[in-house]
């Protein structure tokens, strides 16, 4: 059964040996979450916390598990775990990265142009006025 594991320096050893954290351009202020099943890591989500939203800085599914539903399942699990603590999830994708845009749309995100990027938002709960 797939589940999320919040990564800390003490459990980075759970990541695959060949995973190079620095080369994946994760924001050092971010929080890293691994997608696991039976001690196998399928990928990671990196995000930043803001008062009303999460900012996804990276979704990385390891090469051998891509196009098998693990990315979508990772987003679903993230939403299930985190939807009560923030209003929405935001992220940015370069306008030329069509596959990432289609992936986010398939997960329920709404996108709009913003400079050379497409900004995406998924509303988790309505803001209280």
Number of domains: 1
Morphology call: globular
CATH class: Alpha Beta
What's the rounded overall pLDDT mean?
Answer: 84
User: Which percent range describes the beta-strand content?
Assistant: 35-45%
Number of helices: 2
Note the run of SSEs as H and E. Answer: EEEEHEHEE
Low-confidence segments: none
What's the CATH H-level homologous superfamily? Gcn5-related N-acetyltransferase (GNAT)
Biggest sheet details: 7 strands, mixed
Radius of gyration from the alpha-carbon trace, in angstroms: 15 Å
- Predict the CATH topology: Aminopeptidase
Query: Which structural class matches the secondary elements?
Result: alpha+beta
Number of strands: 7
Terminal-residue CA separation: 38 Å
CATH architecture: 3-Layer(aba) Sandwich
**Helical residues, percent:** 10-25%
Side by side, the strands of the main sheet go 1-2-3-4-5-7-6
Describe the structure.
It contains two helices and seven strands; from the N terminus they run ββββαβαββ. It has 129 residues and is of the alpha+beta class. Strand 6 (110-114) and strand 7 (117-123) form a beta hairpin. The chain has one domain (3-123): 3-Layer(aba) Sandwich (Aminopeptidase), CATH 3.40.630. The N and C termini lie far apart (38 Å). The model has no long low-confidence stretch (mean pLDDT 84).
């Amino acid at each position: 059964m797939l589940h999320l594991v919040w990564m800390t320096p003490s459990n980075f050893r759970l990541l695959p040996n060949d995973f190079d954290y620095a080369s994946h351009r994760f924001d050092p202020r971010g929080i890293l979450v691994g997608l696991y099943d039976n001690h196998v890591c399928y990928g990671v989500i990196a995000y930043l916390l803001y008062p009303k939203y999460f900012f996804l800085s990276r979704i990385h599914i390891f090469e051998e598990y891509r196009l098998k539903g693990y990315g979508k399942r990772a987003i679903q699990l993230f939403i299930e775990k985190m939807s009560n603590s923030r209003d929405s999830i935001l992220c940015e994708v370069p306008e030329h990265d069509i596959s990432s845009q289609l992936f986010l749309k398939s997960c329920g995100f709404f996108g709009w142009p913003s400079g050379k990027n497409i900004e995406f938002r998924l509303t988790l709960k309505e803001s209280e006025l």
